[in-house]
Specification:
The complex is a heterodimer of chains A (119) and B (106). With 119 residues, chain A is an all-beta fold. Helix content of chain A is 0%, strand content 52%. In chain A, strands 2, 4, 5, 6, 9, 10 and 11 form a 7-stranded mixed sheet that branches. A 4-stranded antiparallel sheet of chain A has the order 1-3-8-7, with no helix packed on it. In chain A, strand 5 and strand 6 form a beta hairpin. The radius of gyration of chain A is 14 Å and the shape is globular. Chain A starts with a strand and ends with a strand. With 106 residues, chain B is mostly beta strands. Chain B has no helices and 11 strands. In chain B, the strands form 2 sheets. In chain B, strands 2, 4, 5, 6, 9, 10 and 11 form a 7-stranded mixed sheet that branches. In chain B, strands 1-3-8-7 form a 4-stranded antiparallel sheet, with no helix packed on it. In chain B, strand 9 and strand 10 form a beta hairpin. The model of chain B has no long low-confidence stretch (mean pLDDT 96).
Chain lengths: 119, 106
């Protein structure tokens, strides 16, 4: 079945970067968009943007331009999100999700990765 | 950016009770989608394109609406329905989510 397996929790210092991974299985990785979503503790969901592994095309929400960078490795069916210049406001759970073909909904989600930014 | 406002923010319902959650958009959208999130887990697609139930979703759930006003209805509340529900629009970028409605069991 479709699965998105995310990397583990990260503890990082302000000003540094973390790279989160999202390994896909159970479907053709290059045929589906991967979206990234942020959720701060006890708060709602925030859409970051997407990557299309088939051609590497990306789109970022204005708020996350310069903060997030998406890449994909088709040989390992893994999507990545690099978060740079970390501040405490970046402390959150980050989810990857697959776009359902032909729609604009996310039909499969990773388990989430926790990022904590603290000195 | 389209802002989605969900109401109520929190509510409690008794088993068997009918529940209606609403989502209002700041501009007209073509469809609304809904996700369910239980505590400590990732969101699950619940209702898509306003009224289509995702795989495995019980048919006591339904969705309706158009333009700027949408709703999710539970015909008869069950224990397992206690969760937070988020609406999401994909009509224009950036995609946005509502703030969520936390549904508790009374």
């Amino acid at each position: 079945q479709v699965q998105l397996q995310q990397s583990g929790a990260e503890l990082a210092k302000p000003g540094t970067s973390v790279k989160l991974s999202c390994k896909a299985s159970g479907y053709t990785f290059t045929s589906y968009y991967i979206y990234w979503v942020k959720q701060r503790p006890g708060q709602g969901l925030e859409w970051i943007g997407y990557i299309y592994p088939g051609n590497g095309g990306t789109y970022y929400s204005e708020k996350f331009k310069g903060k997030a960078t998406f890449t994909a490795d088709t040989s390992s069916s893994t999507a990545y999100m690099l978060l740079g210049s970390l501040t405490p406001e970046d402390s959150a759970y980050y989810f990857c999700a697959r776009l359902r073909a032909g729609t604009n909904v996310m039909d499969a989600w990773g388990q989430g990765a926790s990022v904590t930014v603290s000195s | 950016e389209i802002v989605l406002t969900q109401s109520p923010t929190t509510m409690a319902a008794s088993p068997g009770e009918k529940v209606t959650l609403t989502c209002r958009a700041s501009s007209s959208v073509s469809y609304m989608h809904w996700y369910q999130q239980r505590s400590g887990t990732s969101p699950k697609l619940w209702i898509y394109e306003t009224s289509k139930l995702a795989s495995g979703v019980p048919n006591r759930f339904s969705g309706s609406g158009s333009g700027t006003s949408y709703s999710l209805t539970i015909n008869s509340m069950e224990t397992e329905d206690a969760a937070t529900y988020y609406c999401q629009q994909g009509s224009s970028y950036p995609w946005t989510f509502g703030g969520g409605t936390k549904l508790e069991l009374k």
